[in-house]
Amino acid sequence: MPRLRIALGVAAAALLGASMLTSPGVAQASPSADVTTAVTAKLLQQATKAEPALRAADASDTRVNVTRRAGQRWAFGTAVVVAPHQEGAYPAGWLFVARAQDRGWQIAFDGEPAFAELAAAAPAAVVSDREKQVFTAVTPMYAGGDYRTGMRLPFGIGQSWYLTGGPHGWGGSESPWSSIDLSGGDQVVVAARGGTAYTMCQGWIRVIHDRGYSTDYYHLWSNINVNGAGVGEGAYLGYTGTDVTCGGAASGRHVHFGLRQNSAYVPIAGHNFGKWVIMNGGATYQGYALHGSAQVNVGGALYNYGALGFTQGVVDANGGGSVNKRSGPGTGYAVVGSVGDGATVNIACSANGTTHSGRWGTTSLWNKLTDGTWVSDAYLWTGVSGTVNGYC
Q: In CATH, which superfamily holds the domain spanning 160-303?
């Protein structure tokens, strides 16, 4: 759509005035431009790189909320591109830090290298010390092969909600398949893990966690209004709803739950929430979840067992039943008990022993449980292919 792109470029230039890009991820607007105008112009530039549904955005499709300022030199807030009200379209949003310089506003969105630099330099009234720790901590994607999240499902422990949509993109069909849809229960959506929460726009909450992860919750009704507030695991965020104030579509009450790492959406498959491992299907919105050998397909109910600890595992007998516990790390040691499929075990340390194959691969690693018995790592989901609590 050449005409559309030209028009968008003209709009952005008009908003910026005499503007330029001085380095990747840092927009500078002329001193005459106020910070909202300058952030809007950068937001429109971001829209040209977003999903196709957002590329036709103009200034009327943006929501810039300057939530904190320090005089005329520093600002912080949220910047959102509203999506069309159609199926498969979702808004895009960022946190931003802005600093006024002689040549104009220097602006960086989260996910850009300059964001951490500006956040670190900002006064505490604009970016708190807690936020600086969150914004400047960048971990390897999936923590270098570590898929542990420490997260529950985003609803009450002990409740069962329906998996109404398997892995799909934040905007629907695009990659990565970062999101799932959940509905039912008491309809109360809660934080999957503790963190720092932001209201991106009406119906949309983002919580930034540790390990580089963050989670997005959309279509909420009566959601909280927060600007960097600390929230604990299980904190109320809102009710499931059909809110599309920021675009998209929703035919029934649900929460659109998305996973991000290092300020970008990442595949949700392979991660564990509420002791369920999310798995892809052959197409978007398909797929299933696994708790041990128990499989729940789209349309089925997921019972929230609570978060899996970083030194815990879920027993997966790869077909049901139970797994033997032994007195040492291998089948040459005596059987001293068993543990049922789907059970949660606490791991004290690990050692190498006899090799076995399970659902998640072939390994010689054995895990010593806190009761002193041993179980092959082939029959546990821990989120990593190595040790979770060091070697014995």
A: Glucose Permease (Domain IIA) (2.70.70.10)
Q: What is the pLDDT along the chain (392 residues), one digit of tens a residue?
A: 333 333 333 344 444 433 333 334 445 544 446 999 999 999 999 888 877 778 888 899 999 999 999 999 999 999 999 999 988 889 999 999 999 998 899 999 999 999 999 999 999 999 999 999 999 887 777 777 899 999 999 999 999 999 999 999 998 888 999 999 999 999 999 999 999 999 999 999 999 999 899 999 999 999 999 999 999 999 999 999 999 999 999 989 999 999 999 999 999 999 999 999 999 999 999 999 999 999 999 999 999 999 999 999 999 999 989 999 999 999 999 999 999 999 999 999 999 999 999 998 999 999 999 999 999 999 999 999 999 999 99
Q: Which CATH number is correct for 312-381, 2.30.40.10, 3.30.450.20, 2.30.30.40, 3.30.1330.60?
A: 2.30.30.40
Give the dihedral sign, CA 368/374/378/381: negative
